[in-house]
Amino acid sequence: MHAPGERHLWVNALCIVQDDAEHKARDIAYMGVVYGKAFATIVAIYGDSADAGLPGARPGMRPPQKIETLVVQAGLRDLDYDPDGGDSNEQVILYLVATPLPLHFALEASRWDTRGWTFQERMLSRRRLYFLERCVYF
User: Fold this and answer.
1) Could you tell me if residue 73 is inside a domain?
2) Structurally, how many domains does the chain consist of?
3) Which long-range contacts (CB under 8 A, 24 or more apart) does 102-110 make?
């Protein structure tokens, strides 16, 4: 039994002894319980190996989001946007940012989605925090 408020972090690569086949097989059999009882599972989608890390977990690991500026004439017929309903000689500045892919597309395109053991992470975890190259999904 754990005291209220006590916190734990389970890291598969550290908590499961990787070079002892018997110990590893025993612990892997309990992963359903680990995922099912976890508050949240941190999923590293980005990268080709376990050494890729979590993009954005530290400053400078992720490029800043690009913001594009678009200046248009207010009241243009071809522009279905006129915030003030004002003078057609006025300029309007629009700031545009790209939104990330919907999560299901990002998962389908990832190497993570091709690994059999990750099926448990997806199906048995109550909550997942997905780290991708440019964003995080919860």
Assistant:
1) no
2) 1
3) 103/130, 103/137, 106/45, 106/130, 106/132, 106/137, 107/45, 110/45, 110/46
